[in-house]
Structures are given as structure tokens and as C-alpha cells.
Amino acid sequence: MDFLRVSDNGRYFVRGGKPFFWLGDTVWPAVSWFSMEELEVYFSRRAEQGFTVEHIMLPWASWDGIDGTQDFTMRPGEMELWLNDNPDTPNEAFFEKLDQVIELAGKHGLLLTIMPNGGSGGMHVEYRKILTMKNVRNWGKWLGRRYRDEPNIVWVNGFDVPPWVHEDIAIEFNAGIFEEDCGNHLMFYHPCGGTTSSHFHNEDWLAANFIQTWGFYDTVQSMVTADYHRNPTKPVVHVEGAYEAGTEFPTVPITSWHVREQAYWAFLSGGFHTYGHGDVWRKTPYWKDTLDAKGSWQMKILKDFFTSLQWWKLVPDPKLYHGMGVERGFVGASSSDGDFAVLYYPYRWVQPVNIGRFGGGKPVTGEWMDPQTGKWLSKAVYTGEVCNITSPAQCDDAILLLKVE
């Protein structure tokens, strides 16, 4: 098993010398609230659905997301991360379980991203004040030393707050990790809703930009696009948006259509994406049933579609749509070799498409896919400079794959 790396061109990730397709899911309290038997069920299903990355936190105390109250309850079988809430005394039993979780995820081909400092709006730096400038460097050193040679993880700094808040603690934590890690692991930063880790973009330690849109999912396209065009070039991951069936967002319900929108916007704007389901990250009594939620299986359709192509060659190309009248949410990307392009129609519509720009005068074959079912639908050959192309009437949203004849 190989460590995750960034591609030479800075646009995507590689593992074992091959492009790595990042499709994530969040199971934040994996170590704290899930048994190993439950994680076997969970990891097995997510691997079957094509996910490649799982996001977890170590210190876990969450807002319940319903009435804004705080949940510090230790559930049956839950272990302390730190003895007496002291980061200088990590609980060995907790980390023995984490070792098992890492191994199990690897068995299912899933990479773990680990947030060692928690989230929930800065719970452990701002409210409980457990992590401080006095102890966070040693905490980082301890983790860096213990997991230096473990290839199936990456580190994610941050506290689920704006990246400029508690920046000194974040930098001190990095120093501890890097002192012991020997450069083996990539480091990321997880910001709060509506922000991006690009605050640290010019720092060498930041491997890629993480974006959290939370419930403001209509900003996915613009935020990914902004980070995609920053210099120096780094990968972009829309790492947390509106969770399927989530109850805490300004606009509910969050349906599988919202799930698909967020994902295709992220990928075709030049980034990657992490899915999430509201019942899984909270581990509600229904979590196991929701493993088969529509959106989760539709992420498999998305992955199967992109990995059938040389997806790493896709370049965001808004000029595929002709003129200034592009409707909200329409996004497209074309191959750097000019041999194929992908367009996403978020709803039934007709759009003028610059076939001449893409095909160079050659006929272009267009085929529609239903992202809900993965079924291929109608096919047509387009010629000329601009063609008005209408999405299939039977699809709520649709993918158009264009290939030069």
C-alpha cells in the first residue's frame, strides 16, 4: 500500500503511481460511536458503492444539529481519547481501536482522512479549551511518531472554524506532526461552512484546498472554480456540503438531486467531492438503513462514469456553453486532448453548445446518461458551430458526453 501524493501538475492525487479518484464519505464518530462489527458493515457497503475516502474525527462531541444543544454523552462502549481530557496522556485503548479501524478501511480499499483536533465549531479549542498552545505541539508529535509509517491515512488539521481563527494552534500542531512524520503524509485543513482552506494556500504544508459549503450548496461551483484557479496549483476538494436527508440546513429536505448537483458541480469545476448522509454521521437508529440511500448509490454511478474516461485530463470549460445566457448550475469540462467533453444539465432545459469550439470542425457524437439510473439514453451526431441541445424529458438532471468522431 502506498502513501497518497499530489500529481506532478498539481491537479489531482496519485497513489501507487496511478491517478486516484477521490470520492469521500463522512463517518466522523467512527472510533467513538461505531463498533468494529458495525464498521465492517459500513466500510463494506461504501466500498461496494465506489467510495475511496472516509473522513473521521478523533475527539468527538457534536452539535446534534436539530435544536442546537451539545452532546457530550459517553455512549455505551465509548472510550476517552485523552485520559482526563489531557492531550499529553493519549488513551492507548482508543488508539488500539483506531489502529483496527485504519486496517479495516484499508482492507476495503478506503483511505482514511483523520481530523485529530475535532470539529463542531471549534469544540476542543474554543468551548472546552482542551487543545492549547501549551500542549498541541506535543499532541502532534505523538501522532506523527505513532503513525509515521502508516500509508492508509492523511492528516486534516482544523477545528471546523474559519481558518484564520486559532491559526496559531493549527500551525503549532503542524509543527509537531512534521517533526516526527518524515514527510510521509499529506496535510490538509478542514474549514467551517462557507469557507475554504485557501487562507493557507501559499503555505507549502497545505496539500490541497478543502471547501465546506454546508447548506449553501449553490456556491459549490463558484468556490471550487476560485480555488482551482489559484497559484500555485493545488487539488481542490469540496469536502463537506449539504448532507443527504440532513435536517439542519436552511433549505430542506436535502434530496438525492441536491446530492448529485453538488457532486457534478465539484468534479466538472475542476475539483473532487465528499458525500455525506445525515443519519450516518450522527449514527441515528436508522443509520444502517440509510447506507442504501438513493444519493449514495448515485455516487457509484458518478464514479463509474468518470473512471470510464481519462478523468484526470478534464479541464473546466464554461465556454462549452455558448453566449452569456448560461443558466444557474450548468457546468462542463473538456479533455486537455480535445477528444471528449462532459456537460451537466441540472434540470430539463435547452442550451446552445459550442460544438465547433470542441470538435474543431469534425462531427461530434453526443450521448445522454441519466445520473439517477446510470442508463444511457438518446444519441445524436452534431455538426456546425453552435447547436441547441435539449436534455431528455424523462430526466430530472442529465449528463451529456461528447466525443469527437
Question: If you had to describe this structure to a student in words, what would you say it looks like?
Answer:
The chain has 405 residues and is α/β, with parallel strands linked by helices. The protein folds into two domains: 5-307, TIM Barrel (Alpha-Beta Barrel), CATH 3.20.20; 317-404, Immunoglobulin-like (Sandwich), CATH 2.60.40. The protein is built from eleven helices and 22 strands. It has helices at residues 30-33, 36-48, 92-107, 123-127, 136-146, 167-181, 220-228, 256-268, 278-281, 294-307, 355-359, and strands at 5-6, 13-15, 18-20, 23-26, 53-57, 62-63, 70-71, 111-115, 153-157, 187-189, 195-196, 209-212, 236-240, 272-274, 314-316, 331-335, 340-345, 350-353, 364-369, 376-382, 387-390, 398-404. It has a nine-stranded mixed beta sheet, covered by helices on one side. A six-stranded antiparallel beta sheet has the order 15-16-17-22-19-20. A hairpin with a 2-residue loop joins strand 2 and strand 3. Helix 5 (136-146) packs parallel to helix 6 (167-181). The chain is globular and about 70 Å long.
What order do the helices and strands come in, and which of them pair?
Blueprint: E1 5-6, E2 13-15, E3 18-20, E4 23-26, H1 30-33, H2 36-48, E5 53-57, E6 62-63, E7 70-71, H3 92-107, E8 111-115, H4 123-127, H5 136-146, E9 153-157, H6 167-181, E10 187-189, E11 195-196, E12 209-212, H7 220-228, E13 236-240, H8 256-268, E14 272-274, H9 278-281, H10 294-307, E15 314-316, E16 331-335, E17 340-345, E18 350-353, H11 355-359, E19 364-369, E20 376-382, E21 387-390, E22 398-404
Parallel strand pairs: 4-5, 4-14, 5-8, 8-9, 9-10, 12-13, 13-14
Antiparallel strand pairs: 1-2, 2-3, 6-7, 11-12, 15-16, 16-17, 17-22, 18-21, 19-20, 19-22
